Prior knowledge:
The protein is α+β, with helices and mostly antiparallel strands. Helices cover 17% and strands 27% of the residues. It folds into two domains: 1-45, no CATH class; 49-415, no CATH class. The strands form seven sheets. Strands 7, 8, 9, 10, 11, 15, 22, 23 and 24 form a nine-stranded mixed β-sheet that branches. Strands 1-2-6-5 form a four-stranded mixed β-sheet, with no helix packed on it. The protein has a three-stranded antiparallel β-sheet with strand order 18-19-20, with no helix packed on it. The protein starts with a helix and ends in a 12-residue tail after the last strand. Mean pLDDT is 77; it is low at 1-88, 93-97 and 404-424.
Amino acid sequence: MNAKDSTKKMICVLSLLLAASLFLGSQDFTIFTETISENGAAAAGSREQENVEADQTYPEDSGNANPTYPENSHSANPQQEVFPDSNVSENNACVGAGTPANPIHYCTKKDDGTDYTDFSYVYFGSYPQCEVTDSSTIAAIDNAIATAGTTADAGMDVWVNGTRYRRISKNDTNYNGHFDDMPASNGYRYFKWERIKWKVLNNDGSTLFVVADKAIDCKDYNDEYVSATWETSTIRDWLNDSFYGTAFSSSEQNAIIIQNVVNEDNPYYGGTEGGNNTSDKIYLLSIGEVANETYGFCSDYSTYSMSRRMKASDYANARGIWRSSSSAYEGNCWWWLRSPGGYSNDAAAVYSSGCVSRDGTLVINDIGGVCPALHINLSSGIWSMVDDGTSGEGGNGSKVVVCALSEGKIVKMEEAENIIEPKM
């Protein structure tokens, strides 16, 4: 049943209840009504509205080791269309005892943004995301780092006032062309660690197959301009080592189920080899997976589908990710898939419009988004359907200094006595 039919049904039910209440009211009865057809109302009224128009641009894939961004790859004259308002639905409906529901995709296979998906979401792990601009908080972060007596880099984090922060410089970016989009303070930008929000692609009763709800970082698919498969890519190493060790606590790491990841050849452009299958804790989605309606995606790879559009975190943008400035897809990024592109030195991607680039872009393209996917043990109890508003525990993959106030001065936690919470 679509949203419009659900709304009509709800109106009919409410009308009947109203009539019944009037009748029973005349008999000195009182009727108490509760929310009716909650899921139908959510589908009809809670979809995030996004205004979309034309002027889509794409990352270049020209074979140049120093590409110019953003242009279309292997494709001339990308389709230009004007789109009306489009709909996205966030459905945190539960199955059984508070477990996430599988996605439902309402597919139109049109480029006008009329398709939408009811996704359930969970929070699991943490990562730097939103930018910090408050001067007092920035001062506290700087003081904490100075107290630590070490030089800040991309792996340098501090805990201040019970919250974890990351400070980065232009040297800590993957591509520094976007670092100055926001004014930096003393050459640095600051980000708060937050819970990672994941879309549930499948709940099979024992595991949750999830993908990040936004691009959480900016990375090349491979650091060198060479032929690369998912197995040999540097982005795979980063996800399963640095990211895994940094974003997840030991208990969260134990809840991640290692997967046998099938790496198929590119099914469209000469069968570019996908390489060997791999065993991964964390990976990227494939061309086939982002066109799988069971996972909540439009089955037509070429459709400018809402189901595949991704925003990017502030941190990812500062690190170099490209975000569309067009009125059609403002704020959307393009993000990597693990599948090979049209050539062995290309990797497939999803454009900001939501269409799948099967020919892909250069593996050294340094403005691409990273949207990790993984499988969580459903019975672990580590995941949550509600954001607890904390920075999580995180892992030990980065250098972390814990600071607090003691006698009015920010000091290392292990040096502090009679610790009180810093006032910022």
